[in-house]
Design a protein that fits this description.
This protein is α/β, with parallel strands linked by helices and 313 residues long. It has one domain: Purple Acid Phosphatase, chain A, domain 2 (4-Layer Sandwich), CATH 3.60.21. The chain is built from eight helices and twelve strands.
């Protein structure tokens, strides 16, 4: 295992190329023949938000420390041979494009298939680099889905309509400004520039994937960087319409997200909304989880400051 000093002192050569060529091919949308439900497990990491820099002024985010904390998390996850995959729920890096060249080689130690979502801090650098980020972390597309043992995972892009992940001349930027302005006029607590929303096209795609999963006899778990429930200042701008849509699809078991580093939880009936805590927020305690999906429940085993939960489904 890397030591803290070894990791923080090294900047691997050609790391971006390694990250691209070592990216996951598993994330593309796929079709499967329903085979019924079989219990399985997967890992969850949220908000490493690594940057090779000192902690923020308030001493609440320890950017550089996420490198060794991620290394320790991967060591633990690698010791569990039965994990189907490990997903990172966004904010892989912070503020510098070069941050990817430090953290992606650490992810290369992971022996399980890996999936990523992107968060607002994953775009905190000059816009000319935006077209390269999907390739660098190995995303097949900004939003995508994949199936594991009777459960379809639907990974959503909450940055698609935002003020930070688009060039100013992109038509979606004007839509983002309009949506944010309407929320601000209404005094909505999630009317924050660090949040975003789904395009109408992505929303329609989500609805189609939920319907297709039901028709295939699959349950679903939704993945996103941003929360949608309960009400919170970190929620997607269009959280209410997404919650309403999910309520129409009872085979949707859960929504898993990051973004709010303090963590959060809510439920509507037996549909669960779990906000995993941020890895970046402590100087010396890691934060990640292993999720076990059973026919009648989802068990979350928290490590470090992540909370353990049992969710009835």
């Amino acid at each position: 295992m890397f030591s803290r000093r070894d990791i923080l002192a090294s900047v691997p050569a050609a790391a971006l190329a390694t990250a691209a060529t070592g990216a996951l091919a598993q994330g593309a949308a796929e079709t499967t023949t329903p085979q019924g439900f079989t219990p399985f497990r997967f890992g969850v990491i949220s908000d490493p938000q690594f940057a090779p820099t000192v902690p923020n002024a308030t001493g609440t985010r320890f950017y550089a420390n996420s490198l060794w904390k991620l290394d320790e998390a991967i060591t633990e996850l690698n010791s569990h041979d039965d994990l189907e995959f490990v997903v990172t729920l966004g904010d892989v890096i912070d503020r510098h494009w070069d941050s990817y060249s430090y953290i992606m080689p650490v992810y290369d130690r992971l022996k399980h298939p890996r999936h990523f979502l992107l968060g607002n801090h994953d775009y905190d650098y000059p816009g000319e680099w935006f077209p390269s980020v999907l390739r660098t972390v190995g995303l097949p597309a900004p939003y995508y889905d994949f199936a594991v043992k009777g459960v379809r995972f639907i990974a959503l892009d909450g940055n698609e309509i935002s003020t930070f992940a688009l060039p100013p001349d992109d038509p979606r930027h004007a839509i983002a400004q309009e949506r944010l302005a309407k929320l601000q006029e209404a005094g909505a607590e999630n009317a924050q520039s660090w949040n975003g929303s789904l395009s109408d096209e992505q929303f329609a795609w989500l609805e189609s994937r939920l319907t297709a999963a039901e028709q295939a006899g699959e349950r679903t778990i939704l993945l996103c960087h941003y929360p949608i429930y309960p009400a919170n200042e970190h929620n997607l701008w269009d959280s209410e319409r997404i919650v309403e849509l999910i309520g129409k699809h009872p085979t949707c078991m859960a929504w898993f997200n990051g973004h709010n580093h303090a963590g959060n939880y809510g439920a509507i009936g037996k549909q669960h909304f779990v906000n995993f805590r941020g890895m970046v927020d402590t100087p010396d305690t890691s934060c990640f989880a292993i999720v076990s999906v059973h026919e009648d429940r989802i068990e979350i085993q928290g490590f470090g400051r992540e909370e353990s939960r049992t969710l009835e489904v």
